[in-house]
């Protein structure tokens, strides 16, 4: 349980930190995930400013429980603002653009991961404040946000199967078209499992394994092949961040199962009713 959350924390923090470093190094907002219009005033300023926030949040996630929780909340707020202020207007103007849908729901999924992480860091300690309770409720919202995002990714795999097939490494056995459809089905199945709660922990664990394998087998080689392509770096960071969200989701369901089991095993402390 803790190992899944720890793994997710490392991946998620690394993805956020890498986004921030790209912003600061290039002076360009995160491609796709931070769609600040090209004509917006102080374009470079916003890239640097949000880069500093992402770096602070990414580093903060690695720190002690309380600081990491504050960092996770801050990242969740930042990603949610991007979703509302940047992505929704862009999606409304380009409703038929698959890339816009992909970027919007990647931001949505990463935002859900921040809330899940913040709630995970509120669990397992003595904090029973109203703020901690709100974070725990937000984890439920994050679960459904992530669950909704996955079928969207799956549908996009079916709609744009030719592109997906084109990025499958040639050395992987089987038809690239098969893998395009298979991974689309995997996204949809995982989303339905997470939304319904049926085999949700298994689905999140398998999803985390799939995303992590993409980091190693697909995105890292593409970055090495095209180190000057900022879009490849962005795709790598998104894959790392989504891997983190999936592992955090697996930890969330593991905690739920542990809590139910503890409740069932807890001896009844009530006194017997008087005759």
Automatic annotation (TrEMBL):
<feature type="transmembrane region" description="Helical">
    <location>
        <begin position="143"/>
        <end position="164"/>
    </location>
</feature>
<keyword id="KW-0812">Transmembrane</keyword>
<protein>
    <recommendedName>
        <fullName>DoxX family protein</fullName>
    </recommendedName>
</protein>
<feature type="transmembrane region" description="Helical">
    <location>
        <begin position="70"/>
        <end position="88"/>
    </location>
</feature>
<feature type="transmembrane region" description="Helical">
    <location>
        <begin position="233"/>
        <end position="254"/>
    </location>
</feature>
<feature type="transmembrane region" description="Helical">
    <location>
        <begin position="45"/>
        <end position="63"/>
    </location>
</feature>
<feature type="transmembrane region" description="Helical">
    <location>
        <begin position="100"/>
        <end position="122"/>
    </location>
</feature>
<feature type="transmembrane region" description="Helical">
    <location>
        <begin position="12"/>
        <end position="33"/>
    </location>
</feature>
<feature type="transmembrane region" description="Helical">
    <location>
        <begin position="176"/>
        <end position="195"/>
    </location>
</feature>
<keyword id="KW-1133">Transmembrane helix</keyword>
<feature type="transmembrane region" description="Helical">
    <location>
        <begin position="202"/>
        <end position="221"/>
    </location>
</feature>
<keyword id="KW-0472">Membrane</keyword>
């Amino acid at each position: 349980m803790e190992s899944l959350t720890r793994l997710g924390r490392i991946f998620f923090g690394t993805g956020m930190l890498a986004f921030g470093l790209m912003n600061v190094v290039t002076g360009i907002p995160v491609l796709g995930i931070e769609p600040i219009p090209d004509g917006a005033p102080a374009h470079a300023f916003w890239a640097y400013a949000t880069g500093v926030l992402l770096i602070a949040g990414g580093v903060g996630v690695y720190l002690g429980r309380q600081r990491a929780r504050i960092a996770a909340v801050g990242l969740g707020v930042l990603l949610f603002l991007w979703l509302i202020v940047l992505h929704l207007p862009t999606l409304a103007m380009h409703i038929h653009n698959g890339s816009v849908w992909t970027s919007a729901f990647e931001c949505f999924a990463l935002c859900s991961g921040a809330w899940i992480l913040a709630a995970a860091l509120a669990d397992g300690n003595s904090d029973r404040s109203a703020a901690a309770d709100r974070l725990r409720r937000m984890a439920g919202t994050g679960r459904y946000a992530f669950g909704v995002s996955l079928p969207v990714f799956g549908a996009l795999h079916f709609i744009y199967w030719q592109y997906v097939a084109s990025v499958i490494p040639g050395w992987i056995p089987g038809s690239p078209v098969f893998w395009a459809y298979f991974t689309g089905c995997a996204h949809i199945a995982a989303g339905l499992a997470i939304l319904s709660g049926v085999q949700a922990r298994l689905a999140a664990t398998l999803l985390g394994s799939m995303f992590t394998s993409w980091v190693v087998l697909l995105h890292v080689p593409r970055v090495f092949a095209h180190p000057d392509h900022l879009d490849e770096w962005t795709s790598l960071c998104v894959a790392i961040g989504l891997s983190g969200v999936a592992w955090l989701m697996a930890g969330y369901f593991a905690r739920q199962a542990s809590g139910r089991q503890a409740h069932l095993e807890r001896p009844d402390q009530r006194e017997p009713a008087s005759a």
